[in-house]
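User: quick one, sequence for these tokens?
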């Protein structure tokens, strides 16, 4: 029986967050430049998006470009941005056909104009789609988002709009870039690295982590199915005991 048939459709993670890692190493293994890996990574983006939508995942967040990635060689940054523009342009039809909404988190104002324009158009076009939301983390880092949230809250406090007692987890969640999305249930990182790398630090508080050695350009639907099947074997306790969780289920 293929793995996908073992997946319980009633317990699919509502939100999956992915760190797409290993493009550079994949290219190096083939004796090619890093950009070659990024180009092949686009097929994996397509596969994971399609695979998640097929299973009824409601939110899929992909770490496409971190704040720290701005420190890469200019040539690589330019190539990544060009690839992003091209991909968004070529995939918008597919997003429409599959009823997928495109959204972003991050300091997108720092992206090149053509990239901003392409994103704006695709987000506008797909804004009423309801099957799944694909969120691209672009020029994103969680520490930036948390600092930004603290500034917003401090401003509200200073102007007297809120009191000290109003500052709670809900208020913080509602001032983050991810405020419109539920926290991820599952976080997948490819390429064997086991780090969070400044990704959704607040939101991943109770997520299940899944690490695979597969390099991102090799990541296919079957790998997503394996991650979800593994997730379904976990007991999510949210700080409670196993006995309490079992009792609540029965
Ligand atoms: C990490 O691998 C990958 C990235 C920083 C970029 C990922 C971007 C894409 C796959 C293009 C996606 C396009 C859209 C529209 C979402 P790495 O370069 O850090 O690999 P390494 O760790 O092996 O060096």
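Assistant:
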């Amino acid at each position: 029986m293929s793995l996908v048939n073992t997946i319980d459709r009633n317990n699919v993670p509502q939100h999956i967050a992915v760190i797409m890692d290993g493009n550079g190493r994949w290219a190096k293994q083939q004796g090619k430049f890093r950009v070659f890996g990024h180009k092949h990574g686009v097929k994996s983006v397509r596969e994971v998006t399609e695979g998640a939508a097929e299973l009824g995942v409601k939110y899929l967040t992909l770490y496409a470009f971190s704040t720290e990635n701005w420190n890469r060689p200019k040539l690589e940054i330019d190539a990544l941005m060009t690839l992003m523009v091209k991909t968004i342009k070529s995939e918008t039809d597919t997003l429409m056909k599959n009823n997928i909404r495109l959204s972003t988190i991050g300091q997108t104002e720092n992206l090149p104009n053509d990239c901003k324009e392409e994103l704006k158009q695709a987000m506008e076009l797909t804004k009423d789609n309801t099957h799944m939301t694909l969120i691209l983390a672009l020029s994103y880092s969680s520490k930036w988002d948390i600092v930004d949230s603290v500034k917003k809250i401090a401003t509200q406090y200073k102007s007297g709009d809120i009191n000290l007692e109003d500052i709670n987890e809900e208020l913080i969640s509602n001032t983050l870039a991810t405020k419109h999305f539920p926290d991820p249930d599952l976080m997948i990182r490819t390429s064997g690295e086991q780090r969070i790398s400044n990704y959704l630090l607040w939101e991943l508080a109770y997520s299940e982590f899944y690490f695979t050695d597969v390099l991102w350009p090799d990541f296919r639907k079957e790998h997503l199915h394996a991650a979800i099947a593994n997730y379904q074997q976990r007991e999510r306790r949210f700080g409670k005991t196993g006995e309490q969780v079992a009792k609540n289920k029965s």
